[in-house]
């Protein structure tokens, strides 16, 4: 069998890789459908509950929200958005967009499409949305790379019990997974935290607010990043630590009685 320490430096990073896979998958799956738990996983939520009955001050004409089917709350994920209303203080999702790869966060275009009018927001908000279009793609790409690399890290970790070289390969994929997930987590946290502040400073006068919500997405993506880091570190130790050689075929080192003892006895009798 392989050594106990070898088992430790392989099993623990394997468990961490599995955790990174599950946690990153949950974060990535947010807002793909109106069902638990993914409907409550989003990067940003825009609340229109306190808005006036029209977007008159924001649009080129008077528009009634209800007549156009505008939701009270919009939440945005990596694949699209969901909308709904607030019932007893809880977010009730009524619709989710069809998942789209490389989804770009652009609430202005979304509202313009639903209202069929031109929406005018403060320049700071518009400038930040322009930047967010680029960062949204970065978040999507790094999130997928991180999750896929975590899968490969787990696969190579499984087969690394008897090979230090395979542990090296697992560590390399672990590095890719950690770096990608860290970039995804940092970019999403920074972008939407800044957008939350800018949006609330500029648009709150219209009764429209932005919030990171319960921050389930950020909890999952940062936890996945931490798990990927631990898996990477332990796979590094697994490269040089722990015996991978089986002792099953080695000869036993026992005591053997010396054969000359009986000859010596016979020789003594002849005397």
UniProtKB/TrEMBL annotation:
Record key words, sorted: Membrane, Transmembrane, Transmembrane helix
Keyword Nucleotide-binding: no
Biological process annotations from GO: fungal-type cell wall organization
GO cellular component: cell cortex of cell tip; plasma membrane
TM regions (residue ranges): 138-161, 168-195, 215-237
Protein name, entry field: CYFA0S12e02366g1_1
Source organism of this protein record: Cyberlindnera fabianii (Yeast)
